[in-house]
Amino acid sequence: MTSVHGEMEFSWFGALCDDDYEQIGLVNQDLRSSWEHCRNIVVDAEKAGYDNILLPSGYSLGIDTVSFASSIAPLTSNIKLLVAVRCGEMWPPQLARQLATLNQTLNGRLTINIISSEMPGESLGGPSRYARTLEVMNVVRTLMKGDRIDHDGDFYSFHLDAPRISVEQPVDARFYFGGLSDEAREVAAQGADVYLMWPDTEDEIAQIIDDVTQRAHRYGRKIQFGYRCHVVVRSSEEEALQAAHHLVAAVDAEEGERIRSSSLDSRSIGVRRQAELRDTASNDGFAEPYLWTGIGRARSGCGAAIVGTPQQVADKINRYRNMGISAFILSGYPHREECMRFAREVLPLLRSS
Fold this sequence. Notes:
By secondary structure, this protein is α/β, with parallel strands linked by helices.
């Protein structure tokens, strides 16, 4: 699908990190991350017509992303897999070979979500961590394309030929990357193909798009933009609000704080901004029309949802599209059920607009 902004991509979220609930905070064993449960989400998302699906990664949560992607790849035929990799945890040449192999299994349908992570048990300051992330991105991209790498950086020194699989079948997979700090934006400007944003007001989103566009231009690059957000879609606005409030009804303030603080990224600038968005929202939790921050009371990371009828949700997404966002990674609870509802009631409105 194309628009004035180019190719559009609508993606769903694969719940690999123990983040699937009827009500957030109440553990349902049937919804915990397992190969079978996450496979069903991917298979359903492909049947429903999504373009891509994010397979997230967390060291202490859920199941391993690359292993899961490898196992699910032969069960898919059209949907792309957006495979999250935690840079600090993997040796870059081996990561490049793993991803090239996965891309071959997918027949070219691999996309990559770069996470600027620390090593398990490591504590590395933001500037150093992002500098290492950029090195990893450059090394992995070079080797996946089948080119020799001659690199002497602050964290890695490699003088290697590319693995045979990349030489014979070069990979030019898109890198998706997010982060709100100045260092993160610089890394995105230099190495990302799609800069991912969490929910925010339209004015703030416009400022971020302008800033990252200008940074990329200084490096002679163009960059696309993505938006990661929850959705709550119901046939009426009243039903949507009821469903949204039901999601967080089981979590009190103390439990919500425990959930948020337990996340690996709980101190990041992006997470702090989600808290600010929530704190400055109106009494009903809306930061602006249809953007509800109440879901952030019970989870870390992406902390807002587009809430409304199918047409209201589609209209809100189209406003973002008109701002220049071309990739949307959406989620809802329970993930499999909301995946099908959104595909049935909202995707047709977006595909036709």
